[in-house]
Design the sequence.
């Protein structure tokens, strides 16, 4: 009896979810209501089968898709420049290309044209650690949109993008639908990160590239069909950005859809500026250090920037600074020091071993 009561309470909750979902297509809403009626018949007969949980979850997931909710774009080129300058040193050419791209979006919107559909997809190409992800985040912030990253290096099957039919065990929607659900808007910025790493098997990689072409092509993504949802979802308002370390495994058809922006590696001089002005204040704050508790001899920065040889990005530089700050924090907590000044004599002690 308790199980039957729970079933009807669950059905009532599902009715409410469907009724409160804004913008859901009418025919899809009717299909979900028919599913609930089917579950009601099962409950009346005293059956609480696995199908009940399967359909219940499907209804919840489908209703959680942002069919209507959108964020309003706030295109301000000066603000976009400021955001990129705050997060990236140098890269003037890359920043200018992005500003041109945003200006095109703004002009198309001012003239009531579909800006996203008429704009190419940006593809940032550069080695690890040069700032491809943070630049994408800056674009989302400049537009006032939600941001979601999909790591393509972990995509080993087309089903991970397109979803698995609810008829199969452990069925779930693909990464694109999950990204929409996580952001709660139908027009987020989605970064498809390191697309050249999708599946090491050539056959599967070609299948994944074909799905990416459908996702990125405005002529096709207005009716993207996820296998789990099994209903067309409009992706035309999503701003997709791609990144890659190289373009060797990306198909020609996909490359034709994208505008490539090559991101150069940082020079040692640029890294010194980034370390002193961008990274060090953040790392000290995360380590609990107050200004003045750690000072570094200006002549030491070349050795800090390149302690183990050449590195194209700044991730290893960030880890070096974190290691230094942790050792200083340990000395302060243990009462061994109140302030540390790094010199040529003691630098080796604070560098990561």
Sequence:
């Amino acid at each position: 009896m308790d199980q039957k009561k729970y079933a009807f309470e669950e059905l009532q909750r599902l009715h409410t979810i469907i009724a409160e979902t804004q913008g859901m297509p009418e025919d899809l809403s009717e299909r979900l209501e028919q599913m609930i009626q089917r579950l009601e018949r099962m409950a009346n007969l005293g059956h609480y089968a696995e199908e009940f949980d399967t359909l219940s979850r499907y209804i919840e997931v489908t209703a959680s898709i942002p069919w209507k909710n959108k964020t309003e774009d706030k295109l301000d080129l000066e603000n976009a420049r400021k955001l990129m300058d705050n997060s990236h040193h140098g890269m003037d050419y890359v920043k200018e290309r992005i500003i041109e791209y945003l200006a095109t979006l703004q002009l198309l919107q001012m003239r009531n044209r579909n800006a996203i559909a008429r704009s190419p997809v940006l593809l940032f190409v550069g080695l690890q650690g040069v700032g491809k992800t943070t630049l994408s985040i800056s674009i989302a912030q400049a537009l006032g949109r939600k941001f979601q990253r999909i790591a393509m290096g972990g995509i080993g099957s087309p089903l991970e993008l397109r979803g698995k039919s609810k008829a199969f065990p452990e069925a779930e929607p693909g990464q694109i639908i999950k990204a929409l659900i996580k952001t709660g808007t139908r027009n987020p910025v989605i970064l498809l990160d390191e697309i050249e790493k999708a599946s090491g098997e050539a056959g599967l990689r070609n299948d994944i590239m074909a799905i990416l072409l459908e996702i990125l092509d405005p002529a096709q993504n207005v009716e993207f069909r996820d296998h789990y949802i099994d209903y067309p979802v409009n992706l035309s308002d999503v701003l997709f950005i791609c990144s890659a370390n190289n373009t060797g495994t990306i198909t020609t058809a996909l490359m034709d859809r994208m505008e490539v922006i090559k991101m150069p590696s940082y020079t040692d001089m640029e890294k010194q500026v980034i370390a002193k002005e961008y990274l060090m204040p953040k790392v000290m704050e995360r380590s609990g250090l107050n200004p003045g508790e750690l000072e570094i001899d200006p002549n030491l920065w070349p050795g800090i920037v390149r302690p183990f040889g050449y590195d194209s990005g700044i991730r290893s530089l960030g880890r070096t600074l974190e290691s230094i700050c942790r050792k200083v924090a340990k000395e302060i907590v243990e009462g061994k020091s109140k302030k540390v000044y790094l010199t040529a004599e003691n630098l080796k002690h604070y560098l990561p071993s």
Observations:
- The chain has a mean pLDDT of 85.
- The domain at 268-350 is CATH 1.10.8.60 (Helicase, Ruva Protein; domain 3).
- The chain is about 50% helix and 10% strand.
- The radius of gyration is 25 Å.
